[in-house]
Amino acid sequence: MTVTEERPVTEVGSPRRRKEDGRLVTGRTRWTDNISLPGMLHLAMVRSPMAHATITSIDVEAAKSSPGVVAVFTGADLGDEQGSLPCAWPITADQKAPPHPSIAVDTVNFAGEIVACIVARSAVAAKDAVELVDLEYDELPVVVEMAAAAEGGNLTHPDLGTNVSATWVFDSAEAGTGGNVEDAIRDAEVLVERTFRQQRLIPAFMEPRSVVCDPTGEQTTLWSATQIPHILKLMLALTCGISESKLRVIAPDVGGGFGGKLQVTPEEVITLVVSRRLGKPCKYTETRSESLLAGHHGRDQIQTLTLSATRDGIVTGLKVDLLADMGAYLGLVTPGVPILGAFMYNAIYKFPAYRFECRNIFTNKNWTDAYRGAGRPEATFAIERLMDELAVEIGVDPLEIRERNWIKHEEFPFSTVAGLEYDTGNYEAATARAKELFGYDALRAEQRERRESGDPVQLGIGVSTFTEMCGLAPSRVLGALSYGAGGWEHASIRMLPSGKVEVITGSSGHGQGHETAWSQIVADRLGVAFDDVEVLHGDTQISARGLDTYGSRSLTVGGMAVVAAADKVIEKARPIAAHLLEANADDLEFTGGKFNVRGTDSSIGIGDLALAVFAAHNMPDGVEPSLDAEATFDPENFSFPHGTHLCAVEVDTETGETKIRSYVCVDDIGKVVNPLIVEGQVHGGLVQGIAQALWEEAVYDDSGTLVTGSFVDYLVPSAADLPHFTTDRTESPSSTNALGVKGVGEAGTIASTPAVVNAVVDALRHLGVRDIEMPCSPHRVWSALQHLDGDGSSSGADTPTEKTYVADDADPSHNAQLSGEDAGRAAADHGGLG
Amino acid sequence: MIPVAFDYTAPSSVADAVSALGSDSEEIKVLAGGQSLIPVLRLRLAAPTLLVDIGRIPELRGITDEGDALVIGAMTTHAEVADSDLVKEHAGVLAKATEAVADPQVRHRGTLGGSLVHADPAGDLPAPILALDAELVIAGADGERTVPAANFFHDMFATAVGDREILTKVRIPKHTGWGAHYEKFTRVAQQWSIVAVAATVKVDGGSISAAKVALTNMGATPIRATGVEQALLGRAAAGDTVKQAASSAAEGTNPPTDTNGDASYRRHLANVLTGRAVLAAAAN
Predict the structure, then answer these.
(1) Beta strands of A366-515 (E only): which ranges?
(2) Are residues B70 and B140 in the same domain?
(3) Is residue B197 a contact partner of residue B180, using CB atoms and an 8 Å limit?
(4) Do A777 and B260 count as a contact with CB atoms less than 8 A apart?
(5) Are A652 and A703 in a shared domain?
(6) What is the maximal distance between C-alpha atoms in chain A?
(7) Who's near B198: CB < 8 A, 6+ residues apart?
(8) Which CATH number belongs to the domain containing residue A550 in this structure?
(9) Residue B45's domain is classified under what CATH number?
């Protein structure tokens, strides 16, 4: 006789199709631009074509008399009411920041900055009048290149006296988390120094930004396509001097953000101020051109790294010098983006010494801010490119060099040189699985064959391992980093009389699938049906407390708040159940949505309890007639998902074209609530990261004009450009939250960029190519092949500087042998080596 | 993304369309499939006062066999051209190039005539039309006239079609039995050609007896690579021979420099892609 073990069927872990997809995919839903209010006026923005200029005159008379136009506002018209757009993250006490008016008052500092706002009875009339505003400018010198700006010269903001906004340093010797990196460099047997450029990117979310403001009630209601309704409400109140209690902010369905909607935008402030001035509802929806031009950009850093190691490839120290391009202003978290990366350069490795220094630089370009991964992709890219370079220097396989340096699974929890405590992880397991799925050894064999036969199409294999700090964030850590808010999240649960459940979350989903995932969690926790759970979010009048969605925080922080609220519901229900069952509360157990009296068949379901509490006819003495509960969860630590990604590319040496042949990723994101959602997040993340490696780049010309101002030039890939992805997971549950989850929103983006670039370089390394600047366009690849130096090294058309030094005996102060094009300079730079 | 207001008319015959073009409206634009003009209007890069929509003129659509030539109505969509057995059989390089245009949505709206008159240097259809020695029929107030493809493309976005005229049909001499290939080089699938090559060749007994090659986006207009065509004659349709003949493809061209590549890279690409296009054409 066979005994079949009964397994509990749980919602968590089930690949549920998303309950919100029908309306999102068809668009028959409440996108902000779908909202139309009685008497609503329409806004259009007049934007500066100049990157840096003094406004000498603005003539709005023709625009004002254009048919349908109600009003035209300039910066001077809005005056103090528009305030200065907020920056919530002053990273140093002496950080320099210019005032940031929503409508420029007397100077413009980037092309695309708003200089006037048209209000009209229709969107057409508003648009027609834009061209009638007559502005005159006196041009000022334009600062475009951050490296030059960092050294002085022309100033983006002459009043600040410098282009450097702030300098932020982390040194493991000073922090007591590691040794002195200068000592490590001095004693190095091997030094690898490289400079990488993180090109500027544009978030390119699917739904352009849109805002509607209705000032006609006692409260002013503002709908916005935002990731952060709660933060926006507070910041708008503070910026515009409005009582917070008079504002209600709603993020209805929002079509993507990727950090690009983690902002308090000029357009939101203007729509709010103008609608209150006029006493009428107003709407502003940007065009795609405006979105690319003036929605905040991402990345844009120059990273110079020095890695010291032993002859066996054991890393002894890492020094990072960063320049980060802020653009013209500091947005909500602009200065903090590189700081989020500062803790990740040591990645999955046991580096004993580490120093990070970042200078934040102003230029006359659109401002940068959070973009998928925010700081962590930059760090991961740099260290993963560098580990490949080290592998070459040592002469071992890139996976081998990683294994020699990574934290072994038995060494967790592990305190890193950057001061974080990694709770769990198993890099060996993820890497082994990835190697197996990839067919690593067979591909290496094919690569050798192609190299030997001189095949015009060369094969490259790219490795990337990564970890990231997710679940932003323990509030005390944010406080220590001078961030203006905490990192907790809030949830509440309302038990309805019919037994249905309303879950209110402070997370603010914008395409991630919160409604489905939260329903699965609550269905298991309360033992109710998945379809009986309704998830409400994004409206500050319904979800009064929250800190919104970014930084892969929703599940690890927001999901935990939901769990805590559900647990409170159960505890509130327990004495009532005991009362109705005429049992002792201690004798009750709650399983499958029912309180059972242990050892009996006496039970009552949570739905029946909800109805009994609603009626409140028979409550125990002193117990309130409510099962509703609220909870706020503040994480004790970050979570640390990790993974190993392997990419094979074919590079056509005749044209420079790169094609991805296969891509394997094995991610460890802890426990999984919904594997289908995870799969979607991984795929989308991979595409975005691969796009940085191969296609996307926001280009400005010398006059500060955005050259890539449409999707004709800003190349966002489609499914046709990508291979089938082979994805798998290993699982080491997070120990810092009860769900054991780690977050998956940024994993694919972070890991894929270096995997692809490492693969491209690997394909061409035997020909002498050592680096290709991103995006690795066919033109750049081909140019690198045309500029090979006689000694076999390549500077390439755009190749950044590189230096490598290998000591050829145990004492690095003697007889050092230098390789690489800058050998002589490297020797000079490193204090008489060689 | 709202165009400036304009008047609109949708004539039902070529005669009515020509007469609408004769109106005294300040700036008249002809609307064909709208896949280029509508974006231009939405971006307010053009502000016509009158749009003449020729999408409702039945005589402008369709593909007919006229013995030694195919005649394709100007308003025949890309999808219809690409799917046509007649085009595949007798003007293969046009079918191949048309398949490479944009995406299925665009191919079901965009038209052959619209694309040719728009004359985008990076557009995919001028080159095969030039390679096939097509003739273009233009209607105006004075009746019809016929212009050979070699004289049709005047400059970037400028053709032999005058302000008050419309292109009505394209007459393509049959290239039955010729191999054909369109080699399009882009960075992402949905992108204008960085460089592309239209090649159609006749192979007899393993050697090339006739070759026609035209380049996309190597100058303001499509360019016939006549040096390559001559160099290929009588040569074996095989790797090195073809590559050598193709290595002069870029001679005399003046390609643009942009974010996708500079002129010297485009010249290099033209040579490489021409070799590939000819080889692929010879193989089918």
Answers:
(1) 414-415, 421-422, 457-467, 489-495, 501-505
(2) yes
(3) no
(4) yes
(5) yes
(6) 93
(7) B93, B96, B97, B127, B128, B130, B131, B181, B182, B213, B214, B215, B216, B277
(8) 3.30.365.10
(9) 3.30.43.10
Across the interface, whether the CB atoms of A124 and B269 are under 8 A apart is answered no
Please give the ipTM for the structure prediction: 0.96
- Joined tokens for residue A5: 């073990």
The tokens of A100 are what?
């940031």
Dig out the tokens for B16 from the structure: 């009515």
User: How far does B189 lie from chain A, in Å, by closest CA?
Assistant: 6
Between the alpha carbon of residue A473 and those of residues A251, A414, A480, A483, A489, the distances in Å are 22, 19, 12, 11, 9
Task: Check whether A570 has a pLDDT greater than 90.
Answer: yes
- CA angle in degrees (0–180, nearest 5) for A726-A716-A727: 10
Please provide residue B111's backbone torsions phi and psi, each rounded to the nearest 5 degrees: -125, 155
If one counts the domains in chain B, the total is 3
Contact A503, A543 (CB under 8 A): no
Contacts of B187 in chain A (CB under 8 A): 694-695, 715, 777-778
**Positive/negative CA dihedral, A45, A49, A51, A57:** negative
Task: Answer yes or no: do B104 and B190 share one domain.
Answer: no
Q: What beta strand segments (E) does B36-178 contain?
A: 50-53, 63-65, 69-73, 135-140, 143-148, 153-155, 158-159, 166-173
B151, B94: one domain: yes
Burial status of residue A261 (CB atoms within 10 A of its CB: 0-12, 13-18, 19 or more): buried
What's the first-to-final CA gap in chain A, in angstroms?
79
Contact A715 B188 (CB under 8 A): yes
CA distance A486 to A27: 34
Contacts of A782 in chain B (CB under 8 A): 265, 268
Write the DSSP symbol of residue B77.
Answer: B
Domain ranges, residue A434: 423-471+639-800
Q: Are A821 and A194 in contact (CB under 8 A)?
A: no
Give pLDDT, residue A551: 87
3-class DSSP state of A241: coil
Q: How far apart are CA A403 and CA A644, in angstroms?
A: 12
Given an 8 Å threshold on Cβ–Cβ distance, is A708 in contact with B259? yes
Q: The domain containing residue B204 runs over which residues?
A: 179-282
The string of pLDDT tens digits covering residues B125-174 is: 999 999 999 999 999 999 999 999 999 999 999 999 999 999 999 999 99
- Quote the CA–CA distance of A508 and A540 in Å, as a whole number: 10
Which of B44, B188, B194 lies closest to A695 in CB terms? B188
Pair (B66, B167) in one structural domain: yes
Long-range own/partner contacts, residues B80-87 (CB < 8 A, 24 or more apart): B81/B112, B82/B107, B87/B63
- What are the tokens at A475? 């509030």
Starting from the edge strand earliest in sequence, which strands make up the sheet with B179-185, in order? B179-185, B195-204, B207-216, B223-224
- Spatial contact of A667 and A682, defined as CB atoms under 8 Å apart: yes
Residue of B nearest to A697 (CA): B259
CB–CB of A637/A419 below 8 Å?
no
Lowest mean per-residue pLDDT among A296-310, A333-347, A734-748: A734-748
Please check the confidence at residue A89 and state whether its pLDDT lies above 80.
Answer: yes
